[in-house]
Amino acid sequence: MKLSTTFPVLCALALAQHAYAQDGGCDAVTVGTPIYLGGSTALQPFVKTVGPKLAAQSGAPYTVFYFGGGSCTGVNNIVDPVNNSLAASTSLTYYVTSADGGVDTKSCTLPASQTKLDLAISDVFEATCTSAARPSSIGDFLGPAQSMVFVVPNGSTQTAITAEEAYIAIGFGGSQYQASPWNADPNNTFWFRANSSGTKLVLASVIGVPAAKWKGQATSGSGAVIAGITAATGASAENSLGILGLDYLDQTDTDGTPRRTKIKELALAAYGQKYAYYPDSTKTSYDKRNLRNGRYAGLGYAHFIAPVDGAGVPTSAKVKYIIDLFTGATVTPAPSFDVAQTVAKDAHLVPLCAMKVKRDAEGGDLKAFKPAADCSCYFESLVGATSTSCVQCSSGTCASGSTCRNGWCEAN
């Protein structure tokens, strides 16, 4: 087929390091306001990126305690905490700034007084998890955008996959209908995620095969997908297929190796598309241009799911602050770190201010989206792929119809 191409405030940090030395229950960690957040494991790198920055910021420090388990685990706890409660002994993770400026991972246990999460983070819409209309008491807020991709071993000759091919290969597993070369025993060649995984649920909506019907191995996480794919060599490399969140694939492994070099990402042609597209403009770029412009179908979000009042406003002030911070609203006090830079450069996601399209339901039609304060050129500058149409500026030097933001002339 055809293929197109703040530094943290020192006193706050010192206080954080002192408090984080404590062990036991999470209520023993006393820095700032606690946020109990849970859900998507694919978005754990995002939590790891923003956690230390939120804890160290002046004016409004927050300690984020994270519980994984999958997108729908977090969503269901928020929607129905009685039937989806968390045990008092549940182990939570939180992240702190290490002595050398890196990130340390620590753990504590859920306090007995905290029977539910404050906020769920999900790769998918609330309705995808509950299979029902969202209650008026629950809000689903779209945060940074992300890409879900199909991957194959480096030894594979494949460069792209169509929705039709994925439907046949994944839905039938070679038992009745076949999509060459993905026609071997899927239990030995397909490496996917659990049915509660947002990565799987987003791509399920793209190809039209429910997550519960996918043939192949249901792995424990993204690392297990990479392990399964990289282990496939020789003839089996051509038959192997996996899925990952591109934000995970865009990172560097602990051994210093870029994950993109370990496996091969496939371009995707959705139903009705003549060409296959990478989320980025090319296989080796990081601009997410095709995702941002609506050409790449595997679009997901970091959804924030929380209880809301009759006006749709989060009932918890601390939850509202976090949601507003990462959905582009103005917050008081202002953050001590550059949110767009943290999202784009550190977490490898796309801030909403750089998006040109959006969708309102899983697999739903894409429609034009105009952010309140466009940051497309700034985003591209952060990932090293600035468009030739982008113009650098100082205050007041932009042409009519654009505004100088973060050193770039952006659309009004």
Please, could you describe this protein's structure?
This protein is α/β, with parallel strands linked by helices and 412 residues long. The chain folds into 3 domains: 6-142 and 300-368, Periplasmic binding protein-like II (D-Maltodextrin-Binding Protein, domain 2); 146-293, Periplasmic binding protein-like II (D-Maltodextrin-Binding Protein, domain 2), CATH 3.40.190; 376-411, no CATH class. The protein has helices at residues 10-19, 44-56, 71-79, 126-130, 163-172, 186-189, 198-207, 222-230, 235-239, 246-249, 289-293, 317-327, 339-346, 376-382, and strands at 3-4, 33-39, 62-67, 91-97, 103-109, 119-122, 138-153, 160-162, 190-193, 217-219, 241-245, 263-265, 267-269, 276-277, 299-307, 357-358, 367-368, 402-405, 408-411. Strands 2, 3, 6, 7, 9, 10, 11, 12 and 15 form a 9-stranded mixed β-sheet that branches. Strand 4 (91-97) and strand 5 (103-109) form a beta hairpin. The longest helix is centred in the N-terminal third of the chain and has 13 residues, at 44-56. The radius of gyration is 21 Å and the shape is globular. The model is unreliable at 1-22 (pLDDT under 50).
